[in-house]
Structure formats: structure tokens, C-alpha cells
TrEMBL record:
It is an enzyme of class 2 (transferase). It catalyses: L-aspartate + 2-oxoglutarate = oxaloacetate + L-glutamate. Its EC number is 2.6.1.-. Keywords: Aminotransferase, Pyridoxal phosphate, Transferase. Belongs to the class-I pyridoxal-phosphate-dependent aminotransferase family. This is Aminotransferase.
Length: 400
């Protein structure tokens, strides 16, 4: 008999991590592979943040903290929510976890029971369905086609809600498409949710600060205060401050839910590292100039990549509002044949051909629930991006 629990069979390892692993293996074997799979900024953590972590160590902040996070950090998060989002929480309504991922995981574990449905607009971040499945819940995936900017439409949300719906997860700017909802677009969705008082909202605002061309970020509890008491507003420092390895995410929500999240956390990680919490405190309260500086670089890369991809025969790429991903369609190459005789039937075949024939690693749209597309992370150097796009073009031109 297997030692493994049956719940494991419901889930799969992260496909985005799998692509990065494969690219690393090929690189180790001497291949000149360009990885466009990474979900993290290529910039380093700002020096002021590192210095705050070192100072915390030197002060002896090396012991357990409260499960929900240090009071200083939670107060800084309260201020952040007030200043950036117009949301008024108390420190008791804030929880801090090991990355945004653990906060979402804790929230789903604390609330979702077998039979409960979680509405997940697709394309989605790969972890939402699997965490839901791990909790015994049922992901209800709602397609958001490119024609609607990869955004959920009010009528599709309405149609997906059943008496069993527990949560709808909204993610703006979105991983993998970079699509972001304006306040008006969110209001259309929150109007639907106001008619269904049993549905809770999990807003994953992880890419809040990564928006371009003057886009104004909005979050559901802000555009519809009537939803405040059933919204978990999730965020973190990983992407905005290039702190993916520090593992700090946080959320604000109703006290009963936050207490439940803390209860789960108290029996798993206890809390994220005390040093990382000191670093996150500096990220939120210290100088913010790294954000516009880095966004200027991301915007320039986004525009370059979109231009280069749209010059590839068979590929078409929408300009996204935020994050550091583009989600081009590869519909125009489906059904074609590569020089080695392989047929491109799916976006999975296309990214496999890209990796094997052109040494470019990206992730197939199938992993994010909407095909035929693929995700490119442009959080890498201009040189890499130019080279990678030239290789993508070479593959596309070689298909017959
Ligand atoms: N939410 C989204 C949409 C993400 O893309 C990610 C990371 O890729 C996370 C949450 C989790 O971030 P963290 O590294 O803080 O766990």
C-alpha cells in the first residue's frame, strides 16, 4: 500500500516551476537556453531593505513573532491599505504569511469544504485550482477570452454562481495575462456579487504596483464598500520590491476569517521569518522610488516584446496593462509542421518545439486554463528578450 495520502492525487506540481527546472537542466547540459518562464523580477532587493534586515538581526530580532506577524509590520500594512486602497483595517484584521501563496492557501484551507465551489476566472494563476482541490473543494473555471481583454464579464460571473459558491478569486493585474481591471470593470462584477450575499471575494492584488501607461489600480472592497465584510484583500512584497525569496505576503479581512487563517498558520509555519518581516516593514514604510524606476524598465520591455511578437507569423499579442507577463496567442501556428516533421497541434506542442528547436523556455497556455496561448515573462534583460523573440520568429517562419 502506498504511503501517500489520496488528496495528493488531486493535484499536480506547479507547471511553471517544471518549465524552469527543464530549462535549468538543459542549460546545465551546455545548451544556450533563454528562460522566459520565471515569475519573479530580475532586479535585486533594494539595498535599504537588505540593510533593515541586517539591522533587525543585529538588534536580536531573531525570535518567534506573533503568528499573525509583528505588530509593527501589521500597523504598516494597515497604513498601506488606507493610503493606497482607501481600506480601513485594524491590525487584528491583518495576517502575514510566508508569501502571498501561503496566505491564499491558509484562507482556502480555513474555509473550503468538500462540495464548496470556488470560481476561478481563466487564465488563472496555476495555484488557485490546485489549492482548492487540496482543500476538497471544486474549482469552477470561467473562461475569459481575449475578446474581453482576458477579463471576467459580469454575465459570466452571474452564470457561474450557485448556492455552493464560497469564493470568487479575482486577480488584477493578472498572472499570466497582465490584464488589469479598471474600477468600472470591477464595479460591474461587484454589482453581481452584491446580489449574492453568500459569495466571498478573494482579491489577489500581488501585482498592484506593476501597472503602466498611467493605469489606476483598483480593488473590489474599495469600489464596493458593501463587500468589505466578505472580502479578503491579499497582497505581498514579492513582486513590487523584488523580494520573492524573503517569503512575505499579507491580507486584510474580517476578524473571524483572519483568526481562522492564523489558526491554520499556527499549526504549520507559525509565521514567516522575523528577519523577513523587518525587511517587509522597510519595504512598505521606506523609500518607494524603486517602484517607478523599475516600472519604467518593465514598460519599455513590455512594449518591445509585444512589438517583436506581433512581427512573428502566426503569433498575435495584446498589450497588457500590468504585471511582467504577456500572453500571446499562437492560434496561427496550430496545425503547422516544424522542419523536423513534428506537427504543432496544441500550445503545449508549440512551447515544446520552442524549447527543443530554438532553446527558448516559456509556459503553455493550457497550464493557465486558456489555450492556444503561451506565457512569456519579460522580467529578464533586453538582450535576452531580443534574442528570444528572434528565435520565436525563426521557429514561426520555419513552420509549413
Ligand atoms: N498571486 C499571484 C497572482 C502570483 O503570480 C504569485 C506568484 O507568482 C503569488 C500570488 C504568490 O506570491 P509569493 O511569492 O509572495 O508567494
Amino acid at each position: 500500500m502506498s504511503i501517500l495520502a489520496s488528496r495528493l492525487s488531486a493535484i499536480k506540481p506547479s507547471p511553471t516551476i517544471a518549465v524552469t527546472t527543464k530549462a535549468n537542466e538543459l542549460r546545465a547540459a551546455g545548451q544556450d537556453v533563454i528562460g522566459l518562464g520565471a515569475g519573479e523580477p530580475d532586479f535585486d532587493t533594494p539595498d535599504t531593505i537588505k540593510a533593515a534586515a541586517k539591522a533587525a538581526m543585529d538588534r536580536g530580532e531573531t525570535k518567534y513573532t506573533p503568528v499573525a506577524g509583528t505588530m509593527a509590520l501589521r500597523k504598516a500594512i494597515v497604513e498601506k491599505f488606507k493610503a493606497d486602497n482607501g481600506l480601513t483595517y485594524t491590525p487584528e484584521q491583518i495576517t502575514v504569511g510566508c508569501g502571498g501563496k501561503q496566505v491564499l492557501y491558509n484562507a482556502i484551507m480555513a474555509t473550503v469544504e468538500p462540495g464548496d465551489e470556488v470560481i476561478i476566472p481563466a487564465p488563472y494563476w496555476v495555484s488557485y485550482p490546485d489549492i482548492t482541490l487540496l482543500a476538497g473543494g471544486t474549482p469552477v473555471v470561467v473562461a475569459c477570452p481575449e475578446e474581453t481583454g482576458f477579463k471576467l464579464r459580469a454575465e459570466d460571473l452571474e452564470a457561474a454562481i450557485t448556492p455552493k459558491t464560497k469564493w470568487v478569486i479575482l486577480n488584477s493585474p493578472n498572472n499570466p495575462t497582465g490584464a488589469a481591471y479598471t474600477a468600472d470593470e470591477l464595479k460591474a462584477l461587484t454589482d453581481v456579487l452584491m446580489r449574492h450575499p453568500h459569495v466571498w471575494v478573494m482579491s489577489d492584488d500581488m501585482y498592484e504596483h506593476l501597472v503602466y501607461d498611467g493605469f489606476v489600480f483598483a480593488t473590489p472592497a474599495q469600489v464596493e464598500p458593501g463587500l468589505f465584510d466578505r472580502t479578503l484583500t491579499c497582497n505581498g512584497v514579492s513582486k513590487a520590491y523584488s523580494m520573492t525569496g524573503w517569503r512575505v505576503g499579507y491580507a486584510g479581512g474580517p476578524i473571524e476569517l483572519i483568526k481562522a487563517i492564523n489558526k491554520i498558520q499556527s499549526q504549520s509555519s507559525t509565521h514567516t521569518s522575523s528577519i523577513s518581516q523587518a525587511a517587509a516593514l522597510e519595504a512598505l514604510t521606506g523609500p518607494q522610488d524603486c517602484i517607478p524606476e523599475r516600472n519604467a524598465v518593465f514598460k519599455q520591455r513590455r512594449d518591445m516584446v509585444v512589438g517583436l511578437l506581433n512581427a512573428c507569423p502566426g503569433i498575435s499579442c495584446r498589450t497588457p496593462e500590468g504585471a511582467f507577463y504577456v500572453y500571446p496567442s499562437c492560434a496561427g501556428v496550430i496545425g503547422k509542421t516544424a522542419p523536423d516533421g513534428r506537427k504543432i497541434e496544441t500550445d503545449g506542442d508549440f512551447v515544446t518545439a520552442l524549447l527543443e528547436l530554438q532553446n527558448v523556455a516559456c509556459v503553455q497556455g493550457e497550464a493557465f486554463g486558456l489555450s492556444p496561448y503561451f506565457r512569456i515573462s519579460y522580467a529578464t534583460s533586453n538582450e535576452n528578450l531580443e534574442k528570444a523573440c528572434a528565435r520565436i520568429k525563426a521557429l514561426c517562419e520555419s513552420l509549413t
